[in-house]
Amino acid sequence: MGIPMKQEMDEVLAARHGRAVQEKLARGRVAIAGLGGLGSTIAIALARAGVGHLHLMDFDRVDLTNLNRQQYGIADLGLLKTEALRAHIQAINPYLHIKSHSLRITDEAIPELFAEDEIICEAFDRPEEKAMLVNGLFDYYPEKWLVGASGMAGYGSSNAIVTRQVASHYYLCGDGHTDLGTPGGLMAPRVGICAAHQANMVIRLLLDEPSVY
Asked: Which segments does the entry list as coiled coil (predicted)?
């Protein structure tokens, strides 16, 4: 079977989600900062939902330690995460608009990097990187929606992972306390649940539903 035409892909998504919903998602512009266990899973979920414009950012390459929780395979080892994830997304829907930057994000780069994005997903592992991005976006783009994560390590109860609105334009997903030192470390199930919370909140925002309830 050949690659479906764009119109066919659009019709299938509209049939599944409703045309009005799908048209809003197709116009969405979402940045994902960090393409590890959280970011790669968020990106795949949004691509499957038909979010039309994705901005992928990560400086790193895929290595063997990533495969326990990230959306990459053995064939991706050594590739830039931006390029590996682009290929996976294009295999799902080749008609999405994908922009990528293979770099380490700094505070000074935030104004230019995120200028065209309406929603930003913070998907870093390290607390200091999370804080840098959140504080920078508060300073430069207080009007943009920000969906971050805190606490998804280990194999504790899935039900402890929730989405909270912690500021007018800032949402935080996770259990709020587990970290890399938690027994089990970062494992695919809870990381994936947290990423799904982030992706779902992004979809709600694109559909003008800012409440977490």
From this structure: none
Q: Nearest Cα to 96, choosing from 149, 27, 143, 180?
A: 27
State the pTM of this model. Answer: 0.97
Residue whose entry in the numeric block shows the structure tokens 């969906």:
147
Residue from 169, 45, 194, 40 nearest 117 by CA: 169
Q: What count of other Cβ atoms lies within 10 Å of the Cβ of residue 177?
A: 11
**What domains are defined for the chain?**
6-206 (3.40.50.720)
Measure the CA–CA gap between 16 and 140, rounded to whole angstroms.
37
Residue 85 sits at the vertex; the CA angle it makes with 45 and 107, to the nearest 5 degrees, is 90
CB 105 within 8 A of CB 128: no
What's the token pair of residue 69?
């929780």
| Mean pLDDT (10-residue bins), the chain, 213 residues | 93 98 98 99 99 99 98 99 99 98 98 98 96 98 98 96 98 93 93 99 99 96
Tokens of 143: 């009007």
